[in-house]
Amino acid sequence: MNNINFLYNEILNIIGDKNRVLKEVPLSEHTTFKIGGPADIMVFPKSADELRRLTEFLRSEKFQNSGSKKDAQQSANYFIIGNGSNLLVRDGGLRGVVIKIGSGMSEIKTESEILTVQAGALLSAAAAEAARASLTGMEFASGIPGSFGGAVFMNAGAYDGEMAQIIESVTALMQDGTIRKFKKDEVDFGYRHSVFCDIGGIILEGEIRLRKGNSEKIREKMKELSKRRTDKQPLSYPSAGSTFKRPEGYFAGKLVEDSGCKGLSLGGAQVSPKHAGFIVNTGNAKAQDVIDLIKLVQMRVKEKFGVDLETEVKIIGE
Fold it and tell me: What is the average pLDDT across 313-318?
């Protein structure tokens, strides 16, 4: 605890606002799954400069010699989250520092056909701003619950659209403290993948290139996609979205359903009876319930179809 107090005081000196540096924060309050143990320290930065100074300290000799690294049990000493829409945090929580890129870094600016979006902005807010500016091409993203930074990191997509189609450039804080701007072809987008999955770095903002359109038609399209999402997905229960990646040549939800897992429950976790591609928290699920249910589904799908299901949701913590 002494090391946590040392870490807290050092970070507070950098951030200068005790409302944005908190101890023992339940991560269930910061994930859409509503599951997860506490973070030792959670920080809510509001600028790239704060992020740079914070991560510089967490990599510094002063931090390394404090003994806190041993307590943190994390190679990078910190973990970045956005809206927590693709995360399952284990019941033991996260040791060390969780940095949440959220409302303090959520500015959205429009100039001609370019939207410049900070990483903490909700993807739905960026899509709404595009509609307001009569810009088309981002309708697919209007119902995705993640932050812009998280969406870029994993190349989020829905309804035949994905971030790779609209990103013009991405600016990131690299692990050596430099800020680098990546052109679209340098981001190396793939299925639920970007270059940042491989090289690290913290996404700060990105530019989205859209096209002029009819505001009324854009809103109609968004409304149509929203209805499709509501009709097909279990939005009345907390979840992390699609639990499994789409295996080549298959649909994950259909494999799960055809293996007899639709509606299957363990503790408070359930394979949604509405859409088998989702595992939901029916109200009191522990992370271990979800993890055990994932393993059971993977085993049954493998036994019946010989297909290895990979998780799309990222599982972290202890």
Answer: 93
